[in-house]
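Dear colleague,

Thank you for sharing your sequence with our group. We've completed the structure prediction you requested, and as agreed, I am returning the results in plain text so they can be pasted directly into your records. Please verify that the sequence below matches your submission; if there's any discrepancy, let me know and we will rerun it promptly.
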Amino acid sequence: MKGKESPLRASDFILLLLQMDETVKPLRIPPQISIYSDKHNIFHLVQSMVSSLVIDQPDDPISYLISWLQRSSVDIPRVLLLGPPAAGKRTVAKKLSAELKAVHVTIDSLLQNHHTHTQQVQAHTLHMFRSRERTRRYGNWARKIRSRDGDCDGQWASCDPLLLCLCVQEFPDKLLLKLVQQRLNEADCFNRGWVLEGIPQTRLQALSLQQGGVIPEHVVMLEAPDDVLLERSRGKLVDPLTGDVYHQTFIWPDDDIVTQRLEKEQDPPQKQRLAELQRYRCEVTGLSLAYQHILKIINGDQPHADVYGQVLAFVRTRHRARTPRILLLGPPGSGKSHQARLLSEKYKMADVCCGQLLRSVAAEGSSLGEEIQPYLDNGRLVPDSLVLQVLEQRLSQVDCSCRGWILHGFPCNLQQAKDLQESQHQPNRIFFLELTDDVCLERITLRATDPISGQKFHAVTRPAPSSWVQNRLQTRPEDCTDTVTCSLGQYRTCSAALQAVFPDSFHINADQDPHSVFEALESRLTTD
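Please find the predicted structure tokens below.
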């Protein structure tokens, strides 16, 4: 950490890999590898390449990978947009695909674009609706299809969207997979990405798509109460030129010309709508579990602009596989140590508290520790040069290199922040825990420790269980009001400079319960 390292070139990266001797245990990973990998998204790139190889299983893997690298973009959108009937999927999907310049793929577009498979679909649907049981369930819609029988090609696209959904729900999974795979492998979807609307509709379909290599980056599920959905389905208006769907209550066009040409969509029977909602409710849990790690549930019962804004914000996040190097900053009492412990326990990262680390090194009696000990004994600040040496040694250890680390208690000023940023151990996630001075003072000055049990108590949030325990509690000298006020003043003086060194940091409101703070931290660990 004695100065800014020269940039790591690709040849250097390969050389470092070759120098890693597998016979030497434990294996030490040079810190430059993580920094280079983060900068160029190497982990995500390799993950995507391996996934494609496993899914497609080409006969010539090398030629396949060369072609894949020439054609592929790891950041193209791959989005599933799911939800019950009348949740607003079509409107959101059309606007989203236009914004992202991605291909909008729907059930009816699949049927129109794939003539060979369409004949199979039509045959399957005709067979489905020939039964009396289906005729009873779907009424006039089933009779409408049965009456067409062999003459569907010219009229298939005009079928009611709900009817198409009914058909797709009962497709054989292999047939649905062929339809989707063939469309998503075409050049426009491969190069520009895709927004797949309304598919899958069951958990089995979701698993079939996953097994077939249809792996989305984001899954959005719109949700709304049944009474709202039923009201929307009764008042749909359609633009015959664009196919856009409107509603006099929920979403209305701004253009008067569009308003004049709107046509009322034929309403299916109320019983049928209720049946489809019930069917969706039965499947929604399985769908959610199938995509739980990339799923965002958004309330569709709000203004369209708000719904779309939330969808777009989520889809623009990028999940990155990286070795976490987390820096927690904030005033005394903001909960840095507690949050570091929670993150370390859940994700097995190394919890590196600078103050505890210095005391530990001093206690070891090493030559470096002997230099540090006099400063600790006299209550003076340890020189930056010694602190940086200690951090260099700790962050280079195997657990930090392999599992990542959480650093807190350092840096405390502008120069220390610059030294850290110019080192081989640059953090890739920086969090500022924000808290007012009054709350910091209350948290610190009202806490005390039981010298017998070692338990910590707080006069407001966790009082002592009895007067006997209360009478023997002890407060640390550094927790007195004057000392804490001085520490807060020092932090406030340097906080603006620290934020300037780390402009891409996240600011977290620490004036809430620890679990909420942890969730806020956790949600930003792997997203850009």
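Summary note from our side: The mean pLDDT is 81.

Kind regards,
the structure core
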